[in-house]
Design goal:
- The protein has two domains: 35 residues, no CATH class; 122 residues.
- With 172 residues, the protein is mostly helical.
- The longest helix is centred in the C-terminal third of the chain and has 75 residues.
- The mean pLDDT is 84.
Length: 172
């Protein structure tokens, strides 16, 4: 490992390399090797989902859309019109008890599916937050490293200027 990166990490993170978490050590090693941290967390996460999980996400996405609301509203109005005025012997008289049963069953099925999808979204967000932390830490360490290099260059230039001044003083 590059000793400059090691010293920088020690100073910036206020701890020795042994005291760092595995994630922080991995980030510092990536800096030393100049390896990019960025990756597509969403794509990686999507690749591991089962068919049921992907289906639940699609149901949640559709169930929370204006398309669903409009289609469902049209269905409810059609049900009421059909059972109140069109059919001579309606199968579900007002107050539409069968419709209420169907709506209750739909809600009982839809609610846990949406909650599962939200839990997966929260997990995806946590993975993104971890990646953001890694990228931010790497950027901070890189900036500190650049800052040290600039300071070294400045100190070198100041030393050269002092040497030139001293040489001029001896000549004059």
């Amino acid at each position: 490992m590059n000793p400059d990166v090691y010293r920088l990490a020690e100073r910036l993170l206020s701890s020795g390399m042994e005291e760092l978490s595995a994630r922080d050590r991995r980030i510092i090693e990536r800096i030393a090797k100049r390896v990019a941290i960025s990756r597509d967390v969403s794509r990686e996460y999507q690749a591991q989902l089962t068919f049921g999980q992907r289906l639940a996400d699609h149901v949640a996405r559709f169930g929370g859309s204006w398309t669903f609301i409009m289609c469902f509203g049209a269905f409810l109005i059609s049900w009421a019109v059909l059972n109140s005025w069109v059919l001579s012997h309606p199968f579900d008289h007002y107050p539409y008890i069968f419709l209420n049963l169907m709506l209750s069953m739909l809600a009982a099925i839809q609610a846990p599916i949406i909650m599962m999808s939200q839990n997966r979204q929260a997990e995806r967000d946590r993975l993104r937050a971890v990646q953001d932390y890694e990228v931010n830490l790497k950027a901070e360490l890189e900036i500190m490293s650049l800052h040290e290099k600039l300071e070294a260059l400045r100190d070198k230039e100041i030393a050269e200027i002092k040497g030139q001044i001293a040489a001029l003083g001896r000549v004059g």
